[in-house]
Amino acid sequence: MYALQEINMQKDKHGGSRCDLRYIEQFIDAGEGTWKARYGPLKLKSHFQPIFSLAHQQIVGYEGLLRTYDADAAEIAPSRLFSRTQELFEDVFLDRMSRYLHTHNYSSKTNGQDWLFLNVSPRVVVGGKDYGAFFKELLSRTDIEPGRVVVEVVEQGIEDESVLAEAVEYYRGLGCLIAIDDFGKGHSNFSRIWQIQPEMVKLDQSFIRQAVVNTNARRVLKRLITLIHESGSLVVLEGVETEAEALLAIDSGTDLLQGYYFARPQPTLPGRDASASFSQLCNTYRQQTRLELERGYDLSQRYRHAMRACGKRLVSGVELATACEELSGLPYLKRCYLLDSEGWIQSSCTVAGEREGSESQFIPLRRHQKMVWSQWREFMQAARHGNEVYVGSPHLSIRDSVLSRTLYLSLIHEGVERVLGVEVDAIGYEHGETE
Q: Which CATH superfamily is domain 290-431 in?
């Protein structure tokens, strides 16, 4: 295989500072609807990977991906190609050549309705403006409307906030959409989302890999997608390769999907109707989810019934430990509390066999016996919930280091307002699994 480090980049005869459209076109070969490029002895081509809308179960865009081949027609990974560049000029050249190929090849094949996703190198975002104008003129050469171009920026490669903001302003000023690419990889942070306000956020494939095997990662993925939605962006989940990952992607609430499970990159644009395969996948998801919901609903109803029975006994004057007898027979119960209207614990009942955390964990918190919950919004909501059981959000228990939920029931006990709190193991309760 050709050694990439031996590539001797031809510099511009005007001094090497220009890398505009005219310069790039010297290395482009156009023929019969397919555009190719030369980079030393290497040949560069475009491939396109479809991006699907989950809600519509259809292709709504394509990401342009570079494919490189040596003199023996052996494929070279793009990461190897870009990792061997030694000068910024080479990065700018390869980046612009890639976008040139993708826009022209896409323009000759597209139906004129879908998005074209184009990557922009972080190094080019930082230093590309010193090599002459390029992208505006490139778009004007094709039939692609700027509003159908999604510029993908890998934000963790750009340390200077002002440079990133300037680049985003430039592409958005052309009419393009902005996507943060590989979010969650490296040192990504939400401040960039709030600063850039991208139309889309593409989550790194590590999220879906971890979520399949890790329950906590699955929970975090769902909440991360919710948070990105609340920030005003669509979410693209990329790297989906198996049915299990596809089902989890659906369950996570993502907007757009990309990965080998749905379609591999190819030089042509697939025109097939994706609704059939999506319909089968969604049917599988609905069947699985229906069973989970039925189990969860059954356990939830058992808890609600037992809590109401406990509440009636408390109102009649029965002690908490006795009043909780029906609750103690339910799976995943950890402890019961009786709180006053201010949120102070009046009495508690710990279920036998509860696992305590190690002595080294949360000692400064656990050594205090009294706790007040009035500052928690969910407690205030529960206190106003009347006779209905209110289910709180997941939290880490400082007693046993287990993810937990608290169920609340407002009642009148000894003539004053009280709240019955029932703490359960969150994972078991949510999935409705039987022990």
A: PAS domain (3.30.450.20)
